[in-house]
Queue: 2 jobs
Job 1
Amino acid sequence: MESCDSTACQSAREIFTELEEIYDDQNLYFRTITSVLEAASALEVPHRLKLMLTQPKNEIMVHCPVEMDDGSWRLFKGYRVQHNNVLGPYKGGIRYHPEVKLDEVKTLALLMTMKCALARLPFGGAKGALRINPQEVSKDELMRVTRRLTAALGDNIGPDYDIPAPDVGTNAQVMAWMADTYINFAESSSKVSARGVVTGKPLAFGGSAGREKATGQGLVYVLDALLPNMGIELDTVSCSLIGYGNVGSWTARLLQKRGTTLKAVMDHSGAIFNPDGIDADALALHVSTTGGVHNFAAAKAISNDAFYATPVDLFIPAALEQMVDLEHAKRIQCKVLVEGANAPTTPHAERYLLEQGIEVLPAILCNAGGVTVSYFEWKQNRQSETWDEALVDERLKATMTRSAERVLKMSKRLNCNMRIASYASAIEHIDKVYELRGVFP
Ligand code: NAD
């Protein structure tokens, strides 16, 4: 149990008391908003902004009855949390996971607000989820539940209002079903623009070149921008990864092209190690056929403890939230922890790592490549354009590099760590827009 008696936690508790809410410090939402409020306090923004950021604007809950293949019926719970839209339409992924909870979705929506603001995208933050194990249902069942969820969300999503995308447990096919359902309900005059209701669609149906690899690609561009300042060269380093799904496997494959050696990987099926390097492409093929890294022939199985203790230059968590806690942090031997997943590091783990001189690069900077190329997809859909991969990569690199420079500059200005600096840069932008727009009425 990681309890918190710091000044930052104390001021977060005071804000929740003012909002007549009680949160305990084990809660992911409390942990995340505490850092956001710490950054807001460092900037001395108006108190009203702290209040507005502490609660999402809308929390939508739906229940979707779906007939299963065997004739039985199940009721699936769905969420959409719309955190803030002062910068533009709400934007954020839809997660399919059997244990997803409202506070997890709220946290991810808050992080989307911060992520879009840091990258200066014209989007606010949202996140959605459905309590389902996508591996345990048939393709037809998955399609029916997706269509039912889309219908249940109704006008709460739309290309000018709230634009979902893939996340854990969803993919381009799920986005295609969502877009198709939404288009079927759309007025005939808006059917063309209606496909912009979701991003991360298949290429043949309004998707963007480079979207599938975008999050991993963006992470590599951030490393390109920041590692030289730390005296680290990408082509000579080693890394380990938690998670070998979209973010993990693309990060590994793109880093391999740059000469990085992948020493160890852990996912839900187990952990593997090869001191001479694991072939990232061969592992991606193995995972796509078997479902996990377990039994990969060209590496040996190791325990989870041994995985964390493997000495590497870059340690990259790219699976689920809060997987790196204080006990793990004490085992980790790396120079930089690079957050590929959202909120993978607990506050105590982060503090410990920083005390050891290990740099922690925050998720809202490192994994913003996905939402950035989603923005490019939305833009292409609106303009009926198709960009090639080279153009997408060029623009992605420019966005990620500018964000990394912003964070670096802010960390020097406030003399703070990279996480607080990344939130501060996002909040400063949001504050400026609230000042210009005013707060209605
Ligand atoms: P994914 O579903 O493709 O992969 C998830 C990975 O996590 C899998 O390899 C799975 O084995 C692993 N995992 C699950 N439970 C685990 C456990 N208990 N121990 C170890 N590994 C476990 O998901 P993804 O799209 O790669 O997303 C990963 C993270 O990145 C999430 O936090 C997501 O919100 C974030 N993210 C994703 C994108 C994107 O474009 N896909 C963009 C930004 C952020």
Job 2
Amino acid sequence: MSQPDAAAAAIVEIDGSRLIDRLRRLAAIGARPDGGLNRQAFTPEEGEARRLVANWARDIGMTAETDAIGNLYLRYVPDGTDGQAPVLGGSHLDTQPAGGWLDGAYGVIAALEAVQAIAEQGVPLARPLEVVAWVNEEGSRFQPGVMGSAWFAGHFDLARAPQIEGSDGEALDHAIVGYKAATPDIEERETPFPIAGLIEAHIEQGPILEREGLKVGVVEGVQGIRWFRVEVLGEAAHAGTTPLGARRDAVLAATRLVQALSAAMADPADVLRFTVGRFVVSPGSPNTVADKVTFTIDMRHPDPHELDKGEATIREICAGQAAPCTAEVTVTETLSPVAFDERVVAAVAGAAEALGIAARRMASGAGHDAANIARVAPAGMIFVPCHGGVSHHPAENADEADLIAGAHVVATAMARLAAR
Ligand code: GLV
Ligand code: MN
Ligand code: MN
């Protein structure tokens, strides 16, 4: 076999204990007393995680670079490949406020292990490899989520940053400056740049693989997502003295809206997913009738027309059922359904098959950075099972053997994609 042919059929061995050790050490940053993680976007904790991962990469001869929004790129450029479009692997380092140790971190550390293993084995490559950590995937502190990859793909305008306020009041532009200043030794890079292929590894965050006893999900696409902010406006008043008929109570109006919306969105087939995950009452005092409630809606469906229909329903209910208050609806994020690149999907499926790992093709219910990158470059994903399908929860967990098997597939698939 010629060198490119050998690499196109490569099987890469990885160091499973190194993978798990790094995941555990990373999980100490932002650890919560309940075993979960709080390492939200652009916080000092995320900065510390970024520094740790960049140093691991530098220790093995990779270079660390960033861009205007703070995405992290760790580059391995074998001789003769400089100037070629790279193959990327990675995910994100931020977590939910009460998140787990694998959502995001797994994809970054699996890709780092993949690149290190490929380099150690001297697998011949025609392209550089990069590990990427996209910023603010979770969207818990700043909306919209999947922000770093959306910006890379031209789907988010950074000029909006001064107007985007975090859940703790910090403006996004200020947060990005502070985050990047914490790692001044990471150099800036021009973006966007051409990407030959991207693989994001992730825990499934759902129950299918575990239920079916499979080790790997070959992800074919991601369903559509639309986020809304609803502001219900009433009037503040004294809780003891104001007659009921004279009140414009924003809490009563908002809870009525949430009930009406969830009834209207109930889908017997359980395909449409509707969630109110944040409900903020103002002024938030026990003895004052609330003048304002802000709540969020996360709506998901694989069919964009169903998302349009859902949006129309949300607008109609909020306009018609908020009286005596008013309700204003703003779309804060819109991600169309995405089908992944067949060549990347085939590389993941082929690697799992070559390694003898039981896999199935599937769609993703969760949103991922790879879905943004798929709009501008060939991209795909691999899922590994997680315990009980639990995620966005401190109890999130997975079998070490499954995490290792998934990284094995990532390494083999990245080497094969970079062979030509
Ligand atoms: C990702 O965290 C999502 O919200 O799907
Ligand atoms: Mn994630
Ligand atoms: Mn998540």
